[in-house]
Amino acid sequence: MKTVAMRLVSLLLILQVAFFVYGQGRRLREQQQQQQQQPCDEYYVAEEGDTLQTISVKCNNIFILEDNPQIDDSDDIGPGTVLYMRQP
């Protein structure tokens, strides 16, 4: 009888952990989708480690290089660089 009870408790614990992990993953996906849907402000100030590609993904904007003629080299983005972001 103890074996059946132990198995039942183990099963319930496993199910509880599985539902918790599923809920956390779902919440994380929803947060990521919300972040992707929110475009950046009209001006974006580059941070350490930013590249045109990461900013483009972050801001959902593929026109950064086209809209910022002051950028001669796409690799020449440093912290503090101010970029115009075309608004949808």
UniProtKB/TrEMBL annotation:
InterPro entries: LysM_dom_sf
Source species of the chain: Zingiber officinale
Stated name of the protein: LysM domain-containing protein
Signal peptide start-end: 1-25
Keyword Metal-binding: no
Keywords, ordered alphabetically: Signal
